[in-house]
């Protein structure tokens, strides 16, 4: 991965984070995508605490593909609903809303999260 690609994503991420913030009523669903896994966290930015987290590394199916991303979305939604969180703000962290990121979001919506 070139340095330009990384700096571009970080610049976009900073722009997104200036516009959105998670509160106690509506926390932020943050996505991180690596070459081996995809991670999702629900974060309350007012207190700076992670309320729930799920990743493809924790699932039995440790691949990083679109189907696994959908499972991670469903898993994070189930954890959130168990803690009484039904609405979130989606933070794509500078990644394009396509492929794995889109599949994670659709899985979370299918399982009952609203955003």
UniProtKB/TrEMBL annotation:
Keyword Lyase included in the entry's annotation: no
Top-level taxon of origin: Bacteria
Keyword terms of this UniProt record: Ribonucleoprotein, Ribosomal protein, RNA-binding, rRNA-binding
Pfam annotation, one family: Ribosomal_L18p
Family statement: Belongs to the universal ribosomal protein uL18 family.
Assembly: Part of the 50S ribosomal subunit; part of the 5S rRNA/L5/L18/L25 subcomplex. Contacts the 5S and 23S rRNAs.
Protein name: Large ribosomal subunit protein uL18
Lineage, opening ranks: Bacteria, Pseudomonadati, Bacteroidota, Cytophagia, Cytophagales
């Amino acid at each position: 991965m070139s340095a330009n690609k990384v700096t571009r994503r970080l610049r976009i991420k900073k722009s997104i984070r200036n516009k959105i913030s998670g509160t106690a009523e509506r926390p932020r669903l943050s996505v991180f995508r690596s070459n081996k896994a995809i991670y999702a966290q629900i974060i309350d930015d007012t207190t700076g605490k992670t309320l729930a987290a799920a990743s493809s590394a924790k699932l039995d199916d440790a691949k990083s593909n679109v189907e696994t991303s959908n499972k991670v979305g469903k898993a994070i939604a189930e954890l959130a609903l168990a803690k009484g969180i039904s609405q979130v703000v989606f933070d794509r962290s500078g990644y394009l809303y396509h492929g794995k990121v889109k599949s994670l979001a659709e899985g979370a919506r299918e399982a009952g999260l609203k955003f």
